[in-house]
Amino acid sequence: MKGVCEMKLIVVGPGGKMGSLITQIAAGKDNIELIAGVGPVGRDYIGRDLGQVAMTGTNLGVPVVDNLQSVIDDCDVIIDFSTREMGLEVLKLCIAHKKGLVCGTTGFSSDEIQCFQDAGNEIPVLYAANTSKLVNVMNKLLEITAKTIGREADIEILEMHDQWKKDAPSGTSKEMGEIMAHVMGKELEDIAVYGRHGMAPREKGTIGYHSLRAGNIPSSHTVYFGFMGERLEITHHSYNWECFARGACDCAVYLDGKEPGFYTIQDVLQI
Ligand SMILES: NC(=O)C1=CN([C@@H]2O[C@H](COP(=O)(O)OP(=O)(O)OC[C@H]3O[C@@H](n4cnc5c(N)ncnc54)[C@H](OP(=O)(O)O)[C@@H]3O)[C@@H](O)[C@H]2O)C=CC1
Ligand SMILES: O=C(O)C1=N[C@H](C(=O)O)C[C@H](O)C1
Question: Whose CA is nearest to atom 13 of ligand 2?
């Protein structure tokens, strides 16, 4: 039996890697009631039961629709892990209908991320390129390390993901770079170097980016701090996508009933 204080949730992209896991985890929580899933127009699974599409193992009695506007007024919070284009569309509808939004989609420009931050004036919104608890602990370690030795070290970020990932570098590695650049008193766009090749010597004070896509690697991020004669590596590996999906559900529960504002995963994790 469901609890009395259920947050009404819509999942965008419930047939996707993340959307299906988020739906499975949400379906097992007493404090969440799934209202609908939203998929793209023209898919053969539109109109089917959300539980079937997300492979929760049971019918949930609610459909996957292809029009968010038709169901949005029935929910409290929306979780979006889809595409850059759909993420921006979802943001617009959440503002128009005054609904809470957790967006974990990556691939946005910094101006687009700013749109999520500005939306905090009107709705409760949480954007996180990575909803894993341990990645956000790693971000704290990076902040301390870059503050202490960032200006002396050669900093390189290596991120690995599955062959299907659409964006590079990962949203997480961009956030990691921004955190380190900030404590080094720099703007990331001024010091990021993507895929260094050739014989030119490494330029001091820059952050190198390297993206690897292979097989079904869920997610790995390593930041190297290179000195002469020694190096420090800080790494996070995920073995599957569950850590991100659990974090996304925690974010949605956190956002339910909150005043308008731009919230962060650090607010949820209290770190
Ligand atoms: N914040 C975090 O911690 C994490 C973020 N991500 C990010 O989440 C995003 C999704 O990743 P992933 O699940 O691997 O990708 P998938 O491609 O597996 O899933 C994306 C889903 O979005 C759906 N979709 C696409 N366009 C629309 C639309 N117009 N309307 C509704 N649904 C749509 C797709 O439908 P269909 O399949 O029918 O095309 C698909 O189900 C990426 O940006 C990724 O980087 C991923 C993991 C963790
Ligand atoms: O696409 C993924 O899988 C992931 N995407 C996010 C990113 O771009 O950083 C988070 C995590 O790395 C998994």
Answer: 219
For 85-115, what is each residue's pLDDT tens digit? 999 999 999 999 999 999 999 999 999 999 9
**Sign of the dihedral through C-alpha 160, 163, 169, 175:** negative
The answer to whether residue 41 scores a pLDDT higher than 60 is yes
Q: Please give all residues whose beta carbon lies within 6 A of any atom in ligand 1, as ranges.
A: 12-13, 15-19, 38-40, 43, 81-83, 86, 104-107, 128-131, 167, 171, 241, 244
Q: Quick one: how many helices (H) and strands (E) in the chain?
A: 9, 12
* End-to-end Cα spacing for the chain: 33
pTM summary value: 0.96
**Nearest protein CA to atom 16 of ligand 1, as residue:** 16
**Annotated binding-site residue? 121:** no
pLDDT, position 202: 85
Domains (range + CATH), the chain: 7-127+242-269 (3.40.50.720), 133-238 (3.30.360.10)
Identity at 145, one-letter amino acid code: T
Query: Tens of pLDDT along 214-252?
Result: 999 999 999 999 999 999 999 999 999 999 999 999 999
Q: Per-residue pLDDT averaged across 204-211, rounded? A: 93
pLDDT number for residue 3: 52
Q: Between the CA of residue 18 and those of 54, 97, 219, what are the distances in Å?
A: 10, 25, 13
User: How many angstroms does the Cα of residue 138 sit away from the middle of ligand 1?
Assistant: 24
Tokens 């202490």, located at residue? 148
Choose which residue among 20, 172, 220 to substitute to test ligand 2 binding: the one with the highest number of ligand atoms within 8 A of its C-beta: 172
Could you tell me if 155 and 180 are in contact, meaning their C-beta atoms sit under 8 angstroms apart? yes
pLDDT of 209 over the 90 cut: yes
| CA nearest to 140, candidates 71, 236, 47, 46 | 236
